[in-house]
Design brief:
This protein is α+β, with helices and mostly antiparallel strands. It has three helices and three strands; from the N terminus they run E-H-H-E-E-H. Strands 1-3-2 form a three-stranded antiparallel beta sheet. Helix 1 crosses helix 2. The protein is globular and about 30 Å long. The model has no long low-confidence stretch (mean pLDDT 91). GO terms for molecular function: DNA binding. It holds the Pfam family HTH_17.
């Protein structure tokens, strides 16, 4: 059975999102979310040592999965 995602008001989600926020949106562990970003499974952008996510890219990813 697929994991149920929390209901989100996308108007309140920041344009640029960090790993813990995306992990909450996807109901995943922070470490696992980071690994998905590193592998290119999640649409992510590395800025220095930090992973960042575009709100619209994550929203589209959720729609497709």
């Amino acid at each position: 059975m697929p994991r149920e995602r929390p209901i989100v008001n996308w108007d309140e989600v920041p344009v640029i999102i960090d790993v813990p926020y995306v992990a909450r949106l996807l109901a995943l562990n922070v470490d696992y979310t980071t690994r998905l970003a590193q592998r290119g499974v999640l649409p992510a952008h590395k800025i220095g040592k930090l992973w960042r996510f575009d709100k619209e890219e994550i929203r589209q990813y959720i729609k497709e999965h």
